[in-house]
Structures are given as C-alpha cells and as structure tokens.
C-alpha cells in the first residue's frame, strides 16, 4: 500500500497498487581529463566535504482501477489524477518501508489504458535521493523501530556547567537543529559552535554516521533535532 500527500490509495474506491520499482539514485560525477595522463581526476566531492553527491531517483508505480461502470471508472481516474498528479513535492510512504519516507513528485503525465471496467496507470515519481526517517531521532516508536539500523537514545539533555554526550546518527552526515534554553557552546571534533537561545542551525556542525561525542558547556536545556537520511 502507498500513501502520498497524506492520502492512502485505499481512500479512492477500486484503486490499488499493482507494482512498483524503486531505483537507486545516480551518482553525480565530475571528471576532469588531464593532459598526458591515462586517467582523470574526480572532482565530484570537492565542494561537498568528501560526501558523495547523488541525483534525484525515479520511483515507478503501476496502479489498477476497478469500477462497476464506465462513468464510475472515469470518476475514479479523475480522483486518482487529483491525488497523484495535481500536487507538488510531498511525502511518499510505502507500507513495507514504514519507518522512512521519500520526498517526491510526479512531474510527467501518467500513462492510462482502460479496458471496459478496468484501467491501469503508470506514474513515475521523481524523488530526492535519500529516504528520510519518519520519526525524529530520540523519538522512536516501536511500530517503526528497526533493531538492525536504529538507535534507542536520548537527544535532549539538562546541562549544568559542562556535559559530554554521545549522539548516534544511523544515516549519512547531517546538520542537526540545536535548540537551547540559554547561551551554550557545543564542541564536536575540533569545531565549537556558539549557540544562541532558541533554534540554531550551524552548517559546520555535522553529525557523521555512527557515534558523535559532543562536549557541551553552559547551564540549561539542549535538544538535538534531526532525522536519519539513508539510501
């Protein structure tokens, strides 16, 4: 079953997902040929801090529509188009991948074939390259928790003077939002971020995959807000 734009396929009578193909995103490669060399320099990660950069990924879905009359079939098809096509980039969720969602949009018109009281439509979603965690880290629900990939952890802390914490990132390198109740500093590796009261987004403060040891200085409450991003 598929959910798109907060609406399930079963919300349209007679509509069902027949097949789907989720393809991997393509790597963005920038290769520069050098005279007198048999190879080339790969410049793809120069501006991304060493992170591999990907293009958007296609997700192809084939839907079937059953109806009791030709008139009903056309009505259901119009409802289908309004749901799947007449909307911008939205969350796309598959029930068998219930702990993640895609950000996707149908940019090209869907195909349509009908035979008497049955119709089929193939749509191609253009999705961002990564899947995003349904839950924010530190807010895991048992129905979406994966013992193989996820972490049960705290992501908010009370600090009095100084505190060393470990934040686990189950996905790719991300920049968290950091909310503090008073002025604080947070040091990760060799980088220290000066945090103002409220929400802070410091693009040099990054959580890498796995364990991230953070030294916090100040007095008050601090919360790291982020969700995993995975291929």
Description:
The protein is mainly beta. It folds into two domains: 2-131, Elongation Factor Tu (Ef-tu), domain 3 (Beta Barrel); 156-224, Jelly Rolls, CATH 2.60.120. 6% of the residues lie in helices and 46% in strands. It has one helix and 18 strands.
Task: Give the topology.
Elements: E1 2-4, E2 7-8, E3 15-22, E4 31-33, E5 40-42, E6 57-66, H1 70-84, E7 90-94, E8 100-106, E9 113-115, E10 118-127, E11 131-133, E12 156-169, E13 177-180, E14 184-188, E15 191-195, E16 198-200, E17 210-225, E18 229-230
Antiparallel strand pairs: 1-2, 1-7, 3-6, 4-5, 6-10, 7-8, 8-10, 8-11, 9-10, 11-18, 12-17, 13-16, 13-17, 14-15, 14-17
**What is the architecture of the largest domain at the second tier of CATH?**
Beta Barrel
Cα(first) to Cα(last) distance is 21 Å
Q: What low-confidence regions span 5 or more consecutive residues with pLDDT below 50?
A: none
Q: What count of structural domains?
A: 2
Give the topology string: H per helix, E per strand: EEEEEEHEEEEEEEEEEEE
The number of helices is 1
Approximately what portion of the residues adopt beta-strand conformation? over 45%
Specify the overall morphology.
flat
Helix amount, in percent? under 10%
Quick structural summary:
The chain has 231 residues and is mainly beta.
Question: Can you tag this structure with a few keywords?
Answer:
231 residues; mainly beta; Elongation Factor Tu (Ef-tu), domain 3; Jelly Rolls; 2 domains; flat
């Amino acid at each position: 079953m598929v959910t798109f734009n907060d609406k399930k396929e079963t919300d349209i009578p007679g509509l069902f997902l027949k097949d789907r193909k989720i393809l991997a995103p393509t790597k963005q490669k920038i290769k520069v040929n050098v005279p007198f060399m048999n190879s080339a320099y790969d410049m793809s990660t120069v501006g991304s801090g060493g992170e591999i950069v990907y293009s958007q990924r296609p997700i192809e879905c084939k839907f079937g529509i059953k109806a009791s009359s030709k008139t009903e079939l056309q009505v259901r098809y119009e409802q289908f188009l309004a749901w799947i096509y007449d909307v911008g980039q939205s969350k796309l969720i598959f029930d068998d991948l219930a702990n993640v969602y895609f950000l996707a949009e149908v940019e090209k018109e869907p195909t349509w074939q009908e035979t008497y009281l049955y119709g089929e439509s193939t749509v191609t979603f253009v999705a961002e390259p990564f899947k995003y965690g349904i839950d924010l880290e530190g807010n895991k629900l048992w129905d979406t928790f994966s013992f193989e990939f996820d972490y049960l952890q705290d992501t908010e802390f009370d600090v009095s003077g100084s505190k060393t914490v470990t934040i686990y990132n189950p996905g790719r390198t991300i920049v968290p939002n950091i909310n503090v109740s008073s002025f604080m500093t947070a040091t990760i590796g060799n980088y220290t971020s000066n945090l103002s009261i409220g929400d802070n987004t410091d693009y040099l403060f990054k959580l890498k995959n796995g364990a991230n040891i953070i030294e916090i200085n100040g007095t008050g409450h601090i919360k790291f807000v982020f969700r995993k991003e995975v291929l």
